[in-house]
Amino acid sequence: MKFTSLVPLTFLALTGASPCSQGPSDSTVTITPEQIIAIAPKSESCDGAVDFVSECGTAEQAAPAVSEAFTKYGLTNKAEQAAVLGLMAMESGEFRYNKNHWPEPGTVGKGTRNMQSVDFNKLYAASILEIADEFAKVQDQPGPVLDLLLQDPVLDYGSGAWFLTTQCNETVRSGLQNNGEEGWKAFITGCVVTEADEARRGYWSSAVTALGA
């Protein structure tokens, strides 16, 4: 799937907490491979992958990494989880890509399973204490910054949770939790800043069903 959706470079308002303040949550989140497959059917295997095969991730790989990331960022609300998983499935071509390739030749440094912009990846990497020393060496090099994030599956699959919990304001998050499709549309148009089209809606709707949100 050669998707062309773009996450904008525009910096969005923080919720008031520093990204660095994110720490382990007391509430453990478990996302199963079966739920991932229900949202992104291609993630059942990488057998059909034909390009950039090394980037392909299966549901078996994605589920524990997503679960750990949701736990880390305290993303326990199922409606918010569905919004993040739907976005990730769309942006990553159902978890087959974690680097931007289209339109060709792609944007160096844009990626993770949330297909974040270079600027957001720099913010994301800067928020992670475990990679602080390595990040300091490459912080002005978009490609190496992305490569640093891709070394750890939890960081790769965790960008969506980080984005929602640090780059979207409380109105957006409250909308996701309480306002159904209208809340999802506000998340896509007001925080991700892209079109809430039918393709995106399809992934979100599948995620809502899979998670029972």
How would you portray this structure in words?
Residues 1-17 form the signal peptide. Keywords: Signal. The protein has helices spanning 33-39, 59-72, 78-91, 118-126, 132-138, 142-150, 153-167, 170-178, 180-192, 198-211. The chain is mostly helical. The protein has one domain (19-211). The radius of gyration is 16 Å and the shape is globular. It starts with 32 loop residues before the first helix and ends with a helix. Mean pLDDT is 90; it is low at 1-25.
Query: What share of residues are in beta strands?
Result: under 5%
Uncertain runs are 1-25
Tell me the span between the first and last alpha carbons: 27 Å
Radius of gyration of CA atoms, rounded to a whole number? 16 Å
Signal peptide: 1-17
Keywords: Signal
